[in-house]
Structure formats: C-alpha cells, structure tokens
Amino acid sequence: MTWLDLPSDTGFGLANLPYGIFTTAPAAPGSATSEAARTGVAIGDHVLDLAGLTGDPVHATGSLNAFMAQGPESWAATRAMITAWLTDPAHRERVTPHLIPRSSVTMRMPIEVADYVDFYSSRDHAENLGRMFRPGSPPLTPNWTHLPIGYHGRSGTVRLSGTPVVRPRGQSRRPDEPPVFGPSRRLDIEAEVGFVVGMPSALGTAVAARDFPSYVFGVCLVNDWSARDLQAWEYVPLGPFLGKSFLTSVSPWVVPLAALSAARVEPPARDEPLLPYLADGDQPWGLDLSLEVRLNGTVISRPPFAGMYWTAAQQLAHMTVNGAALRTGDLYASGTVSGSTPDSRGSLIELSWNGQEPLKLPDGSTRSFLEDGDEVTITATAPAPDGSRLSFGEVTGRVVPAG
Do 139 and 279 share a domain, yes or no? Predict the structure, then answer.
C-alpha cells in the first residue's frame, strides 16, 4: 500500500512505476523557460522527480540512457528504493515536494535511440498480407516459421508521441502505369510494441535468449507509420526504405521489464522445431498485452500481443547471433500486432483489406488509408501482480499535409 492517494483506475500504480523524461511546463505564456529535462517516474496522477529527490546526476541528463547503462542491479535497486519511498510513511515529508502533477509537465523523448530494428512477428498479420499480395500461394514465406524476420530502420526519425506525421513523398507506381513522384496516397499505421535495450554487448558475441532480462530495460508503445504505395514499389529486392523511414512514433513512458512478471505467457505453439539459439521452452517471454487503436477518437481495433509468434527474447537472440553488438538505447519493435479477428488487426491495410472493405466511421466517413488531419492513438495495458492493470500510456500522431 502507498501513502499516496491514487485514483482507483490508475494504470500508473506501485506495480508499474514507468520511467520517462520531462520538463516542468511554464506557468503562463511569457514566463521563464521550463527547467532542464530530467528523469521522472509516473505514479498515479503525478511524476516523481528522481533528479530532484536523489540529487544523482544520472537522472539529470535529459535521457534514460545513462541510467540504463548502469545495468540490471542498478535498475532493481532503484525500483526497490522508489517503492520504499512511496510505501513507507516515514519518507512522505521528504518525497512530497518532488511529486509534480502530470498535467504540469511536458514529456520529452525518453531515450537517445542508438539503432532501430523492426520485426515481422505476428502470424496473423503476415498471413493477411500474404493472402492479399500472393493469392494462390502459401501466405507465409518459407523462412517465416524458422526465424524472426526483421530489417534495420532509421533511428534518426524515431520521435516522441505527438510529433506531427508529415505525409511522406516518394516514388510509387500503379499497375500498367509509369512511376510517379508525389505524396503517399496509402499512408498507414502499424500498432507495435517496442523493447528498449539498456546494456550493450561486445561485437562478435551473441546474446542468448535466456539473457533477455539482463539486456532489455523496458517496454514502450510504437506506431511505425508506413507508406504502403511507396513501399510496394521500392521494396524488391532489398526491403523497406522511404516507405518506412520518415517517422516512427514512440510513447513517452518506458515500463520496466520488472513490472511485467504477471504478463508473461507461453507463446503460440511453433510449427517447426526451433534451432538451439532460438529455443525458449524453459524461459518463455510471451507477453499478455492488450492494445487499443483509435482513429479520430473511435476505437477501430484491439490487437492482442499474447499471440505473437516470435517473442522479444527470440528477436534479441536472432538480432545478435551473427555477432552484431548492442548499444545502450537500441530500440527494436515487434512488428504489427494483429489478431485472428477483423476487429483485432493492427494496420489499416488489413482493417480495410487493402481498400476493398473501407472502414465506416461514426461521422459517416470511410477510411481505407489515412487522410490529412486524421489522428491515431494507440494505448495498451497488461496484468499486474496485484490484479490491477498496468498502463503503457499512449502513442499519438496527427497527419499533416506533405511539405
């Protein structure tokens, strides 16, 4: 129990304690510049100012990277210390001055992104796209059930939730027509879950799947916006490029991996025997997260993360099995999260079945892909050990016309 008065429905209770970077918003227009960006922990409707409370410069850098680089022992000790502060009334007088209303802060990018990798790990999503684009052929490519398919993205365009989604421009080509240059006509969303690497690894060494919690600090939400028409024309033979590199949005709060013990589940049964480096039978890291996607305020999908075929631990093992080095601040994403029902698909290309079945919105309009002015918000929750639900906050973006 905490001495704080928490809302009964808060997703930011003691079982969560997510980390973020914030500044104090000016009191009024024209007032002094807000204070320096620093580390905070969400608790109820407040942010606990770790820099102010601890005086530790690692929490005053404006990024979680320096703290994450201290490693799992420091992560655990800090989490235990924060829990003690918020549960033992003896700390109340000292802690209270460092509790700031969340409504009074401005969130910043939580990490300095080193590298960014995106995977393709939802079987339902992969089969849906296979049926659309390879009719009459098996929906999955031959390698899909043997390894987590992924590609390297552009870390420089990973940005904080709320960053405007400028409609990308590039080449596209309609059937039987020459290629043209212009704004994407098929701008899409991808509801994903991101994993933040805290500890680096040495070049030439592989990270085992069982060591996942020793390297990954926490989890955030990701919308990996996609220009489907640009991607369709450019991706053969080397994969995504301009159709994916223009913006990837992340949520401001990073939920510690330690908060997700009650969310761990067995992943789906595997079709093929796993190669030894991907074997996870003794320590499975499926996660029972419930996502929700809203378009202009209307819920259009509820994708379930528990059904993801490849887990984050297996993705980490595959990403490093060739000796690729991890860096503090690396971000890798799950790929689009989709379920087996039409209302659980995590992208518009699936929800509208490539434009053949447009979504109907309450105002009478329809969508196959995003229009200028559309706003998409993705949220997620997970079970907590105390029976409550943990919140991951939200990742939001509004589409603005091409520049």
Answer: yes
- 143, 165: one domain: yes
Q: Measured in whole angstroms, how far is the alpha carbon of residue 281 from the centre of its chain?
A: 25
Same domain, 280 and 380: yes
State which of 56, 87, 108 marks the end of a domain.
Answer: 108
Which of 125, 146, 152, 318 is flagged as catalytic? 125
**14 found inside a domain:** no
| Tens-digit pLDDT profile for residues 136-186 | 999 999 999 999 999 999 999 999 999 999 999 999 999 999 999 999 999
Do strands 331-333 and 116-119 pair parallel, antiparallel, or not at all (unpaired)?
A: parallel
Residue type, 96: T
User: Using CA atoms, how far apart are residues 205 and 103, in angstroms rounded to an integer?
Assistant: 44
Please say whether the beta carbons of 184 and 169 come within 8 A.
yes
CATH code of the domain covering residue 40: 2.30.30.230
Which positions of the chain have pLDDT values less than 70?
25-34
Q: How many CA atoms lie within 13 A of 196 on its CB side?
A: 32
**Domain extent for 371:** 116-400
Question: 376 with 295: CB under 8 angstroms?
Answer: yes
Residue at 9 is within a domain:
no
Is 146 among the catalytic positions? no
Query: Is residue 158 located within the same domain as residue 248?
Result: yes
β-pair partners for 287:
264
pLDDT of residue 35: 75
**E strands within 260-338?**
264-265, 286-287, 290-295, 298-301, 331-333
Triad 9, 16, 341: Cα angle to 5°: 70
How many Å apart are CA 46 and CA 317, to the nearest integer? Answer: 37
How many other CB atoms sit within 10 Å of the CB of residue 52?
16
Measure Cα distances from 39 to 48, 107, 196 in Å: 8, 10, 16
189: left (phi over 0), alpha (psi -120 to 50) or beta: beta
For 172, the 3-state DSSP assignment is strand
End residue of a domain, out of 50, 77, 108: 108
